[in-house]
Amino acid sequence: MTTTTSSATSPTKSRATKSTASAQSGETARGFTGDGSQNQLNPLFARAGEATDFPLDELPATESLPETAYQIVHDEAMLDGNSRLNLATFVGTWMDPYAAKLYSETADKNMVDKDEYPQTAAIETRCWKMIASLWNAPDAEQAIGTSTIGSSEACMLGGLALKRRWQQDRKAAGKPTDRPNLILSSAVQVCWEKFCNYWDVEPRYVPISEEHKVLDGSSLDQYVDENTIGVVAIMGVTYTGMYEPVAEIAAALDRIQAATGLDVPIHVDGASGGMIAPFLQPELVWDFRLERVASISTSAHKYGLVYPGLGWVVWRTTADLPADLVFDVTYLGGHMPSFALNFSRPGAQVLLQYYLFLRLGWDGYYKVQKTSQDVAVYLAGEIASTPCFTLWNDGTDIPVFAWQLTAKYTDKWNLYHLSERLRLKGWLIPAYPMPDDLADMVVQRIVVRNGLSRNLAESLMHDIRDAVDYLDALTSPMPTEGLVSTFTH
């Protein structure tokens, strides 16, 4: 579609051509553009561009006023809805005004240009050392870490280190390296499926069940062999929010090593729990206190409380990150080590993380995470008290919980219908099937993040009860055609 000029601008253009020199000077001060057009004076939504339309899929032929372009993009983004009411995502949707100010001041920093922005590079190192200490590394000075674009990249790096260490050990023993495998829960996040696909690693999924709701070390000996590069333990399963018992998994691997001699390391995917457990469950042993844990990753833009996208990965020692994965790069006149998958990436989020570490400290992080957990436990209790729902978990690990429709409660509606009904009030609470072996079970899940207050939670429960009352009052079943989950973990 081509841009046309609104007829509303014609009279003002005509007046502009008749202006005297002195009048033109005054008109420019009032907002005339250099070519004599009066777009800046027109009411905002009557301007050319606002009053008509821009092409959707091709570059416009001409310029537009920054105010016009801004308003169009702003209005389109507005159609996404209110991110604060998105209870599907783990990703943070709120930071304080000082963080927003810092973000705007540092948006131009490229994290890879460490010679150009040496202080940002130094702050990055401070951050991962703080995190290494938070995760009880034996010696933070001997650990090694990096920032990443979210925890997916961090997981990729952790997985690559596992594979490379296994390859080196196999080559040293004169054994083949062409059939690596990785042990995973069937409820693992999709980034691990991508890792196995992209880097030719066989995924061996341990199915969850109602008896074993998470990967807990049971039957691991049926999956581990000499080609196993490692086991992934999840601190906060995305389907339900539950912790996998890393200490029990490590104990099972200890028994396997005693019986077979196979020494299998663990990568802890702490995308969410990595920034929850140190504050809310400090006595829980899941981190570098377990010698079998070689590396840990987390999403800083989840419960690290930073805007997207930022992640961290830390290895117990420099020996746990194979040296041949680290590149020495000369870039823009500087010399730097690089072991991230991405090259140019934002530096602002790293500074935001450091800001939060200084702003909140241990005590502040505890208060924020405890408040989120309290809201999650409140909501889980309210859901549990509703006869139509049966809880899967209660939100006492990370502030996340899931529930299913009580068996034989109704034949008129299901959780997909409830999810659609809640969307009418702006709430995004997904319904989706559980993974293989439980695929017939549909659940709903709520993620409580910083910004979901107790007051908002009470409003949510009011809307859930209203939706249930509406659905229960139906005289015939809701249609089920086309009810599919578009939710991806």
TrEMBL record:
One of its GO terms (biological process) is L-glutamate catabolic process. It comes from the Bacteria. The modification N6-(pyridoxal phosphate)lysine is found at residue 302. Residues 1-25 have a biased composition (Low complexity). Keywords: Decarboxylase, Lyase, Pyridoxal phosphate. It holds the Pfam family Pyridoxal_deC. This is Glutamate decarboxylase. InterPro entries: Glutamate_decarboxylase (IPR010107), PyrdxlP-dep_de-COase (IPR002129), PyrdxlP-dep_Trfase (IPR015424), PyrdxlP-dep_Trfase_major (IPR015421). Belongs to the group II decarboxylase family. Its cofactor is pyridoxal 5'-phosphate. It comes from Glaciihabitans tibetensis. Its EC number is 4.1.1.15.
